Amino acid sequence: MTVGNALHEGQSRLFYAEVDTPLLDATVLLCEALETSKERLLASLPEPLEEERYRRYLELLDRRSAGIPVSYLRGRKEFFSLEFRVDRRVLVPRPDTEVLVEEALRILDGHPERRRVHDACTGSGCVAIAIKHARPGLEVSASDLSEEVREVFEENARRLLGDPGARDGLVERDPAAGGLPFTISDLLSAVRGPFDLITANPPYLTDREVEDLLKVGWPEPPEALRGGLDGMALLARLIAQAPEHLARPGWLLLEAAPPQMERLGTLLVEAGFGEVTVAPDLGGRPRVITGVLP
Predict the structure, then answer these.
(1) Cα 121 to Cα 9, 183, 202, 234, 280, distances in angstroms
(2) In this predicted structure, what is the pLDDT of residue 179?
């Protein structure tokens, strides 16, 4: 068994398991089993594969064929050029969510006097940590619903920002001391503002969509996906809560599904926001909606 034989076998197994990207996934998992880079893997295709490494690879292929995402199998996911630790407690960061970070940075760079940023529904912390990593001078905080999520966020903050993380209480560490405060909160209900800019990638799938995913064994936490009957429940609550947590002017940036954008625009206007704009994701679909509280 050579490395090349194993890669071909893995691609074939994942193809018949109806994995969307069988060659890519087989390559990544073989790199994981060999503890090597893609470049080194491709250079070693004719070389023999150790039996122990091969067994590890087969185990990873079996789990991927069962529907477990590659990011969970590896325990990490790249986002905004940073490597985040992820597991079943949090949603796997998506490339399209990088648009949320890009839009936030664009606005903040255009208003350098605005420095206070909060990320709600933070999950792994990918948005909050990416913003803080890109602009260390900003005062960035984050919130989410559970202690389990806080643990994942804390580990990523510590690894990627050098932050020692949170310990006791709901709100930890003063931003002036270089930390990244985290609040256990139902959306913004327990968060202390005001902030100049709030970002959020809340659950926005419909209940029906989540049930369909669960039927096929989708491994991500349903509470990180479920957005209510029409997928808009948490988005609508965030829009209603945001004005009392924003400075004036203040920006609210929300990631959502493309069909939800028109209704979200109406809700933003009804809540007092103006200058509503929509930014496309990597596929050109409307993905991030922004409103300004004058």
Answers:
(1) 40, 10, 5, 10, 21
(2) 62
